[in-house]
Each structure stands twice: as structure tokens, then as C-alpha cells.
Amino acid sequence: MDISRIILSGLALTLGILTSVYFVVCWWRDPSKPHARALLFWAFSLFLMYWFQIPAILFSIRKVIVVSDFNLFFALTFPITFLAFIFIYLGILQIFEIQTERGKNFFTWSWFIFAIFFFTYHFIARKGVIETYSLPIVGNLLFYVPIRMLIIFITVRWFIKLKSRNIYSILGTGGIVMESALGLLRNFFVIKNTLIYPPQLWYFVIGSSRFFFITQTISIVLLVIGFYFLHLYYHRLRTAIHFSKETKERPQ
């Protein structure tokens, strides 16, 4: 039994759950604002990220895992994790108040829909059994890698254009960008290592890797940091703007 891995998983899980609950409460207080909708998207994304932690925890406690018992789980892992990235992307658009062009919107949503068809095909046609390399390889190269790069691009571009930077915007941007960069390393790690073994064993190959486990846990922590400090940045910014308006409108 690997106590350190269990502790890390527990801490990441607890931190993620508490942050998700906090974001949902913030959204519930004022669901009409874009800032609040961003928090709801991010709460969903963190919740979906926990899905991938289950086998990792089982590996840590040295529980015997039968491949066939987890076929459905592994088949759902890819679309569920990709959906988490979509929620991260949508949350970023909301909190940065980015209005994408119509053509770009069409391309992005077409890509999302294609991803749904791709994952659905593998789930239905293969009946949840991963027998080829197409899901881990194509899934990473065609969907995971591009959406992570898209998240990095949008976040960095927003930060560069930002006129008033503070510690909150720096930590928020840093958390999201570092998580995406770390995720890209994991994506290529998965591609490299799954080709060595039969495709049915792809998760067991990476699940037993200390590098994959630690970086996956760090990713959840980085997401929490990024989301939380961007939330603080916009909360302070809106408060300052509101206070400034009240001061100007107040009779002298």
C-alpha cells in the first residue's frame, strides 16, 4: 500500500470537492452573471476530473483490478474527461467575457460534436471494450492536445492584453496554463507508453506510473488555484468598479 499516493489523492479530492461546492454556492447567489456561470462550469469540470482518480486510488491500495470489470469505466473516461475540458474552456470564455467570432464558433462546436460522435462510436460499436489504439492515441492527439493548447492560448492572450495585473491574475493565469502544460506532457506520455503494450492495458500501464499519478494530482491542485484566483480577481475588479460608480454618483 502506497500511503503517500493515498494521501495525495485524498488531499486533491478534498480540495477539489470543497472548491466545487464553493463555486456552486457562489453561482447560486447570482446565477445571471457571466462570472457566476464560469464558476458553475468550473465546478462541473472539477467534479468530472475526479472520475480519473478512482483507478489510481485502487492502484495505490494495491487492490486487484480485473480489466473486464472496468471496460465500461475506461471507455467512459475519455469522453468524460474531454467534457471536463469543454467546461473549462466555456468557463474561461465566460469569465474573460470573450465573444468569439461566428466562424470560429462554428468550427469549435463542430469539433466538439465530432468528438462526441468519435467517443460514442467507440463506446457503442466496441461495447465499452478498448481493443485498438485508436481511442487512446487519436483521442489524445485529436481532442485532448488541441483543447489544452486552445485553453493555454486564450488564457495567455487574455493575460497579455490585461491592463491591470495583480497577484490574483498572475496566480490564476499561472495555475491554468501550468495545468494545461502538465496535461500536455501526460498526453504524450500516454501515447508513448500505450504503444508498448496491448491497447486493452493502456490504463494499467499509465495508472501504475508514479509520474502520471503525481502530475494528475498536481493538475487538480493547479486547476483549483487557477480557478479560485481568477474568481478573486474578477470579484475584486467588479467590486472596485461598483464602488467607483457609487462614488461618482454620490452628491458632493
From TrEMBL:
The chain crosses the membrane at residues 6-27, 39-61, 73-93, 105-125, 137-160, 167-191, 211-234. Coiled coil: none annotated. It comes from the Bacteria. Keywords: Membrane, Transmembrane, Transmembrane helix. This is Histidine kinase N-terminal 7TM region domain-containing protein.
